[in-house]
Amino acid sequence: MTSQDFKGTIVGFCNPLLDICANVEPEFLAKYKLKANDAILASEEHVPLFQELVEKYPVKYIAGGAGQNSLRGAQRLLPEGATTFIGCASNDAFGKQLASSAKKDGLNPLYMIDENKPTGTCALLITGQDRSLVANLAAANSYSVEHVTRPEIWEQVEKAQYYYVTGFFLTVSPESILKVAQHAHEQGKTFMMNVSAPFTPEFYKDTWEKVLPYVDVLFGNETEAEAWATQFHYDHPKDIQDTAAKIAASPKENPNRPRTVVFTQGSESTVVAIGNQGQEGVSVFPVQAVPKAEIVDTNGAGDAFVAGFLSQYVTKQSLPHCVQCGHWLASLVIRESGASYPEKMAKFTPSV
Ligand code: AP5
Q: Active-site residues (predicted)?
């Protein structure tokens, strides 16, 4: 295949957010009633948090937004122009910073612009090995189906063969997600999603029920798997293999293409379930440990895993090969600060 065959092959949807990262004390989390390892949407009570953070702590600004992190990483491993990212930002300094960081990695950002709100931010509050995420969506929340149906945007959607949408985007524009999911189904293309955070099955279960039948590949981590299993009343919510198998076997619009469910668990093995074969369809892939001394932080590890997996999936590599590349890319990102990819990246060489 030539690089021309990959032009615009993946289109992703999520919230473009600028991450504001700082090490904070547990008292700071307690003040805003935050858990040490969680991801939530900011509400009224978190408005002063952002100001206090930048005033009292040395902060770092890093381009973020889970979906954009994954597509930037996938693009680093794919031929030029393979990825396009859609979401809503403002045309302020933060929005420009996000777009330029995306372009630096070769990603094509097609932002809807809301000039009336600031670009979204995400407070990334680090306490030891844990991180608490508080997303203030701002302009990102303005994304609407009107943007995706503009002829110049829909043209990009039609060109693509693969779609990757985060669960975070369920809170913003479920209409857009369904529109793209239905298009993927009608055209026999691949539609992929990420659970993204425990709150998505907790508070958006109804939306997941509408979207899941279109999902060909679903990603998540162990806490999201447990939250999903709890909300969907599975008998063994702590059994990640059982949860993966049950989601993989859930009803599907296109039953001829079995669903793949991929759950990562940090340094523990990654679990993959395919189709409705129950435990028979479950595989487990060990993670090669990264020495503690080499880990800067694990922010963006899950996004990088997806990036590596996608880069191989769209080039039609085997499942073990996709998982191995996910592990490899995540192992590079945890050696960097935040969801950043190394300036110079070695070529991925599979051992399977
Ligand atoms: P963050 O949650 O930090 O990133 P993430 O990619 O989800 O990373 P996690 O550390 O949570 O990883 P995970 O639990 O998913 O994966 P796992 O640990 O299993 O946040 C990232 C972004 O989210 C931010 O940029 C922010 O902007 C964005 N965001 C927040 N709210 C948002 C919203 N509402 N909308 C849009 N964006 C939003 O690890 C995965 C893999 O990593 C493992 O399989 C393994 O291969 C590797 N790995 C992890 N730990 C180790 C280890 N110790 N040793 C070796 N390998 C490891």
A: 303
70 lies in a domain? yes
Q: Which of 59, 195, 287, 348 to mutate to test the pocket of ligand 1 (most atoms within 8 A of CB)?
A: 287
Does pLDDT of 231 surpass 80? yes
Q: What percent of the residues of the chain are helix, what percent strand, and what percent coil, each to the nearest 5?
A: 45, 25, 35
What is the mean predicted confidence (pLDDT) over 152-172? 97
Mind listing the pLDDT tens digit for each residue in 112-131?
999 999 999 999 999 987 88
Q: Report which ligand 1 atom has the smallest distance to the Cα of 166.
A: 36
286 is a domain residue: yes
Residue 191 Cα to ligand 1 midpoint, Å, equals: 21
Q: Is residue 37 part of a domain?
A: no
The alpha carbon of 107 and the centre of ligand 1 are apart by a number of angstroms equal to 20
Tell me if residue 303 is catalytic.
Answer: yes
- CB within 8 A of 280, min separation 6: which ones? none
Token pair 């509400």 is at which residue? Answer: 43
Residue-number span of the structural domain to which 296 is assigned: 3-17+64-119+137-333
**Closest by CA position to 108, among listed 145, 60, 157, 151:** 157
Identify any residues that bridge with 264 across adjacent strands, giving them in sequence order. 221
Q: Could you tell me the CATH number of the domain that includes residue 318?
A: 3.40.1190.20
* Cβ-contact 304, 339 below 8 angstroms: yes
Mutate to test the pocket of ligand 1, among 94, 131, 133, 309 (most ligand atoms within 8 A of CB): 133
Dist CA 303 CA 286 (whole Å) = 18
State the total domains in the chain. 1
pTM here is 0.95
